[in-house]
Amino acid sequence: MRTFNKLFLTKAASFGMVLTLLFFSACKKDASNASPQTAPASSLKGQSNLAASATAPQTVCYVEVNTENLLNVGNYQLANGKQLFSIGIIFAANINYDTTADTAQLYFNSQVTTVLSGAATYIKPLQAKGIKVLLSILGNHEGAGICNFQTQAAATAFAKQLSAAVTKYGLDGIDFDDEYADYGTNGTGQPNAYSFVYLVTALRQLMPTKIISFYDYGPAASELSYNGVTVGSKVNYSWNAIYGTYSVPNVPGLSKSNLGPAAIDIQNTSASTAASLATQTVSGGYGIYLTYNLPNTDVHTYLSSVSKALYGQATVYK
């Protein structure tokens, strides 16, 4: 069995109100293990200023917006002027539980709210550079998560909240991360075989041209097909959730170009490991290279170790 170190990081406090109810609460990512499935690829066609091409991987970046500026994603270019990152992900919004209505509710904390309500400042400038911007969704220790919806109707109701947020804030899609749900809290159900399939099925119907991605982690990673329908037939991408390692997500139906076996924590994975994982990504023919924890400081030298392996280009900071 492979062993690894977990990053036990603190959860940000949830407070205030957003959308029609409350703000979301976000938490730090946990570097642990998991596994997912297949989908329609919403590509970055026409984004000629991006590093990714028909043969080169896309570099994806999660940003902890509680402490870091999302705009940093757009500050890194290759020596040839193309953007390093193809996708930037706002980490993170939450699934809260309404004990009165017995429903899952989408929440933002104040930092996520600032980014979303300030889309003209934080989101549109990245999109103008050809970078797709997704919103990551994860639990909030209240018992509600992507893996315990009891009916298709309940999953669809939450999918409608997600789709509405994507439309309202001009986002390019949704990323699912099955962490911190604490299933069973507040009398909620445990993970089941159909919940995640129901959810991505409903969301794909609501957002046929948007990106849906899955961070290969948690109970949902083991519940990827139900009644002949696979999660992989609904999502665009899936990537490894264990930073500093190389592990191909088990997502039947997704091609290599839609999978990311390499994952790094920019502030904790060594440059040599990051470069090695990038080399493996290229040699393996995979289409995604996942990064997390982009800081506000200039880390172009570190990122050059990655971009030289992925694209044969050094990274410059603009």
TrEMBL record:
GO molecular function: hydrolase activity, hydrolyzing O-glycosyl compounds
Keywords in alphabetical order: Glycosidase, Hydrolase, Signal
Pfam families, sorted: Glyco_hydro_18
Domain GH18: 57-313
PROSITE patterns membership: GH18_1 (PS01095), GH18_2 (PS51910), PROKAR_LIPOPROTEIN (PS51257)
Matches recorded under SUPFAM superfamilies: (Trans)glycosidases
Keyword Hydrolase attached: yes
Any Gene Ontology biological process: carbohydrate metabolic process
Family: Belongs to the glycosyl hydrolase 18 family.
Protein name per the record: Glycosyl hydrolase family 18 (Putative chitinase)
Species the sequence originates in: Mucilaginibacter frigoritolerans
